[in-house]
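About this split. The held-out portion is used to measure sequence recovery: a designer receives only the structure tokens and must propose an amino acid at every position. Recovery is the fraction of positions where the proposal matches the reference. Here is one held-out target exactly as it appears in the evaluation file.
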């Protein structure tokens, strides 16, 4: 059961309701996490702006790679909502369901490219308490991507940790966008 209940949409400031209107157009409904973040309107605005900056079309990271990373971080943090919506986005970005289903065991799959494996290794190193990011991993990142891309990837992983930990702590449920098998971490 959710820890915090959302307020009625009419109880939020008008400018927050504009975001909700866009969510409803995009997803067919207002998203549960938005209703919770918006209980603190300034924090909601900051989170929404950060998400928009990280999810822009001009990102140096491909849309599919960004989604792979967000789904994996969501799996690790046990965020049902995030796995659901990010998996749906991943599928919309042209990634096969077989690959999405194998994401929890990506190390044992031949479906993931070298770039994807490096990004997922980095995401896990940041998200899991151990082993963490070490000099060897930093060198691999430098050998593959420029500094701006590494900053962008790091920001994306940090944002998804923020989002998925927020939703998991408040027990935000899946909203039924994409059914994927439950992945053990």
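Reference sequence for scoring:
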């Amino acid at each position: 059961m959710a820890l915090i209940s959302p307020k009625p949409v009419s109880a939020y400031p008008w400018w927050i309701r504009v975001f909700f209107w866009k969510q409803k157009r995009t997803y067919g409904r207002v998203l549960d996490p938005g209703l919770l973040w918006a209980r603190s309107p300034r924090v909601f605005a900051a989170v929404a702006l950060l998400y928009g900056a990280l999810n822009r079309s001009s990102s140096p990271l491909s849309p599919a790679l960004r989604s792979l990373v967000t789904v994996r971080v969501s799996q690790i943090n046990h965020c049902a909502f995030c796995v659901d919506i990010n998996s749906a986005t991943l599928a919309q970005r042209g990634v096969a369901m077989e690959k999405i289903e194998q994401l929890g065991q990506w190390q044992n799959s031949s479906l993931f490219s070298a770039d994807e494996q490096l990004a997922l290794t980095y995401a896990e190193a940041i998200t899991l308490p151990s082993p963490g990011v070490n000099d060897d991993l930093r060198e691999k990142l430098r050998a593959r991507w420029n500094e701006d891309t590494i900053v962008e990837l790091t920001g994306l992983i940090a944002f998804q940790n923020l989002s998925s930990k927020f939703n998991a702590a408040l027990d935000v449920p899946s909203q039924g966008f994409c059914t994927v098998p439950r992945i053990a971490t």
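Annotator remark: Residues 147-169 form the longest helix (23 residues).
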